[in-house]
Amino acid sequence: MGASRMGSFGFCIMLILGLILNESLLCNGGVTSSFVRKVEKTMDMPLDSDVFRVPPGYNAPQQVHITQGDHVGKAVIVSWVTVDEPGSSTVLYWSEKSKQKNKANGKVTTYKYYNYTSGYIHHCTIKHLKFDTKYYYKIGIGHVARTFWFVTPPEVGPDVPYTFGLIGDLGQSFDSNKTLTHYELNPIKGQAVLFVGDLSYADNYPNHDNVRWDTWGRFVERSTAYQPWIWTAGNHEIDFAPEIGETKPFKPYTHRYHVPYRASNSTAPLWYSIKRASAYIIVLSSYSAYGKYTPQFKWLEEELPKVNRTETPWLIVLVHSPWYNSYNYHYMEGETMRVMYEPWFVKYKVDMVFAGHVHAYERTERISNVAYNVVNGECTPIRDQSAPIYITIGDGGNLEGLATNMTEPQPAYSAFREASFGHATLAIKNRTHAYYSWHRNQDGYAVEADKIWVNNRFWHPVDESTTAKSR
Ligand SMILES: [Fe+2]
Fold first, then answer.
1. How far is the CA of 252 from the centre of ligand 1 (A)?
2. Key word S-adenosyl-L-methionine present in the record (predicted)?
3. Residues within 5 Å of ion ligand 1, judged at the Cβ atom
């Protein structure tokens, strides 16, 4: 082999190496956090834990939780359980500014699941509330009555600041308790929680032991009784178990957790929308039919054009199974729903999509993958200024443990990922800007492990080049 041939051969090798290196630079994504959480077993808290304590007294109300009760935030659904007898489904409520006490009457329901019979589950909708007002409410009878309070949101409007907490896949482990505590003590005070599905994980117990639905209700009461949690159904809400004769999906969840789905013309409690302050929140169900012609598809098709960004600039979607996920868990489980709905999300400029399911944290760039039509080969997600930011926040801390195994190299669409438990907050400042931050449980309350200023897609549709900062 002559020297010149060696030279050209060497050049070719260099060129190929250069191309590979260049390709890896192009293909590699954002930051995989250097923080590595110690791998330890995630365990549920035992039944006699203090967080599961039954309130004292005969038939005392327990598992108290509230959620938004209409489309605009002037109503609240109050839910609780009594175990000894039905008791009263009435809520007594009064505003901080008024001594006049009002009454609202609710309804009571029960259900059976295999060999379990539920307590008396009460749901009562309080209507015609004033915006931006603190209300006290009292449930139960006599000396076991309990009083709580909540603050209604400001009237819907484009520049109304409002702060949401984001929690997913919470469960009832020792780590779940840490996540909830960190959320409660976060100096960025969340005013309502957007919960992205998988509540109690009762279905991990033999015969889906529904006692663990009750313990979960008591565990989270310290937050859910005082601020609305906006519910999304996850796979652990399905409770479909034909082997023990339980063939009605979502039975425990839909009996226990009511949502205002009729207010947004939905025909099922698994997909619906609300307006809250300056946000329009759409909740979808990964585990209900979403193909063309299905009720969920038709509802969403009619729903998206109704969103008036002049009134509610922030368009947020909650769904359990993520569409973009670079962990080796539940990989591509969200793909078929993405194929169905992603073109709409780009067309209607959804700001952010929050999902759970994967027990870790990840934030994407603004990307879309709508060009692919099977034959054209355009199957790589691309940067798209009209596309949402996708956040996976399934890191509440349930007993199934962390998702630690990531696809390598980090794909270009992934901006930041870390296998830790935690929660996030989204602080909407005005129609153009919101401050988003994620907080891992290992740190002190003031530490934000990932943070980003989010520009609104409708009012501020182009990002500055370096708004995303992570560490
Ligand atoms: Fe899940």
1. 16
2. no
3. 198, 234-235, 357
CA pseudo-torsion sign 76, 433, 413, 291: positive
Return d(Cα 332, Cα 326) in angstroms, integer: 9
d(CA 248, CA 452): 42
For 435, residues 6+ apart whose C-beta sits below 8 A from its C-beta are: 188, 426, 427, 429, 451, 452, 453, 454
Is residue 231 within 8 Å of residue 195, measured between CB atoms?
yes
CA distances from residue 244 to 200, 250, 289 in whole angstroms, order as listed: 20, 15, 24
Q: Which residues does the annotation mark as catalytic?
A: 330
Distance (angstroms) between ligand 1 centre and the Cα of 282 equals 18
What is the average pLDDT value for the chain, to the nearest integer? 92
Distance from the first to the final alpha carbon of the chain: 51
Using 50, 70 and 90 to split pLDDT, how confident is the model at 261?
very high
Q: Measured in angstroms, how far is the CA atom of residue 287 from the centroid of ligand 1? A: 10
Q: What does the pLDDT average to over 335-342?
A: 97
Q: What's the farthest any 2 CA atoms get from each other in the chain?
A: 101
Strands 90-95 and 450-455, sheet pairing: unpaired
Section 452-463 average pLDDT: 94
- Per-residue pLDDT at 20: 42
Cα–ligand 1 centroid distance for 328 (angstroms): 14
